[in-house]
UniProtKB/TrEMBL annotation:
It comes from Batrachochytrium dendrobatidis (strain JAM81 / FGSC 10211). This is Exonuclease 1. Residues 1-99 form the XPG N-terminal domain. Binds 2 magnesium ions per subunit. They probably participate in the reaction catalyzed by the enzyme. May bind an additional third magnesium ion after substrate binding. SUPFAM superfamilies: 5' to 3' exonuclease, C-terminal subdomain, PIN domain-like.
């Protein structure tokens, strides 16, 4: 999940934070982050369809941790899958199935430790597990939202309209969506790492970059919506975009900076790459989210006034 290599790149702007710093405020939570952590502890049971509520207990304990610091939690769940992300989801599903099969092979051979490792690799959060947690949240009067599509976009929207002050997650994608603050690596004592959107422009390699250029760098390095061109990771992506003087990247500029930075034997940028790049960019900017104040679906950020919302673009942000 997230942009590979992004969090280490931002290490100079990591701030130590404690939950007490958010006392009296509302904080958003990526529900699937907690569900995945809870599922990790009971992966063997889940993969073997042995009834367990350990993942529910884990999540409710985390809710109580926030409440004990006078924080109002808003738990946000993923909704439907975006078509643009289907390839990534299918690849992940295949890898999980391979690990699951290996786990059962080890189990039949009596190698329980190796089986456990495989089950922890392949365990997935199912809609049924999310529903079980939702029932407990209702029973305990804990606010939650099921996003129309991705929780990351929904959480960012809640942050932008002022409903939440920060977001608890382990996913760097939230910074690409444009949220103001994320809290990562939250421990049982309430300590974590805070990253602020406003600090990103202070990173040496990206000094004075616009939020658009930062987002473009992340997409070019590879994300859930678009695989990176062969040979490009996050460091190469920064070097390439540093050569682009504009705040955003045009078709001509991208091919120019890529072609002048590679050798004759280097892989070429795919012919349709820029069009796919712009679709990924559109998904990060305008994915459909739920506005709790109006009770309707809206784009994460308003469409440009001259935009013609084609059927293709509409599918990209959620049909």
């Amino acid at each position: 999940m997230g942009i590979s290599g992004l969090l280490p790149l931002l290490k100079d702007i990591h701030r130590s934070v404690h939950l007490s710093n958010y006392s009296g405020q509302a904080v958003g939570v990526d529900a699937y982050v907690w569900l995945h952590k809870g599922a990790f502890a009971c992966a063997s049971e889940l993969c073997q369809n042995i009834p367990t509520t350990k993942y529910i207990t884990y999540c409710l304990n985390k809710v109580r941790q926030l409440q004990n610091h006078n924080i109002w939690p808003i738990i946000v769940f993923d909704g439907d899958r975006l078509p643009i992300k289907m390839r990534t989801e299918n690849d992940r599903h295949k890898r999980r199935e391979i690990s699951r099969a290996k786990g059962f092979e080890y189990l039949r051979a009596g190698q329980r430790d190796k089986a456990q490792d495989c089950f922890q690799t392949c365990v997935d959060v199912t809609p049924r597990m999310a529903h079980e947690l939702i029932k407990e949240l209702r029973a305990n009067n804990i606010e939650y939202i099921v996003a129309p599509y991705e929780a990351d976009a929904q959480l960012t929207y809640l942050n932008k309209i002022g409903d939440i002050s920060a977001i608890i997650t382990e996913d760097s994608d939230l910074l690409v969506f444009g949220c103001s603050k994320v809290i990562l690596k939250l421990d049982h004592q309430g300590n974590g790492i805070e990253i602020r959107q406003e600090d990103i422009a202070n990173i040496k390699e990206m000094r004075f970059w616009s939020s658009d250029k930062f987002r473009h760098m992340c997409i070019l390095s590879g994300c859930d919506y678009l695989e990176s061109p062969q040979g490009i990771g996050i460091k190469k992506s920064i070097k390439l975009l540093a050569k682009c003087e504009a705040a955003t990247v045009s078709d001509d500029a991208m091919y120019k900076i890529y072609s002048t930075s590679t050798t004759a034997n280097s892989p070429k940028l795919p012919p349709n790459y820029y069009s796919r790049f712009m679709l990924a960019d559109f998904a990060f900017q305008h994915q459909r989210v739920y506005d709790p104040q109006q009770g309707i679906l809206v784009p994460l950020t308003p469409f440009p006034p001259d935009l013609e919302l084609t059927e293709e673009l509409s599918m990209i942000i959620g049909p």
